[in-house]
Amino acid sequence: MPQASPRGTYLQVSEVLRQQIASGDVDTLPSEAALMSSHGVSRNTIRRALKTLEADGVVHSAPGIGWRVVRSGDRRSLTERMTDLIAEDSLSVGDTYPSEAKLCGRFGASRTAVRRVLAQMEGNGLLATVHGKGRTVRALPTPTTRP
To answer: What whole-number distance in Å separates Cα of residue 60 and Cα of residue 83?
Structure first.
């Protein structure tokens, strides 16, 4: 990897890994140490790259195994799938959005990845959180309003 990157080295590493995964040759990613060695970057850079891929629904962490490639027919990012859930479940403004646990189960994503997308959706005005009551739909997404 180049020493100074205006784009962010972790993003470059994540794109290289994404291309390797897209080629279909990889089911389980190498260890963090092996990725550090092959890309010539720090552990923190590798972890940020993996978290980026996890947030996009490309990989998930399997305890005791490592990072595994998500092999599903749906190639949309986790952000797109969670946003599209509003239309798929026919939710309208004021309706309750599914809980973090239900979203983790439905999308096979970690709680961290789900929380990150929920925060984006709240920041974009799609969801509102009421303490003790959960999240509700605040606005309906439009094709141009993607978190």
So the answer is: 20
Is the CB of residue 29 less than 8 Å from the CB of residue 59?
yes
Give, as one character, the DSSP assignment of residue 99: P
Condensed to tens digits (0 to 9), the pLDDT of residues 13-23 reads 999 998 888 88
| Residues in a beta bridge with 129 | 135
**How far is 70 from 99, CA to CA, in rounded Å?**
22
The Cβ of residue 14 has, within 10 Å, a number of other Cβ atoms equal to 24
Cα angle for residues 39, 40, 44 (degrees, 5° grid): 90
Q: Are 28 and 67 in contact (CB under 8 A)?
A: yes
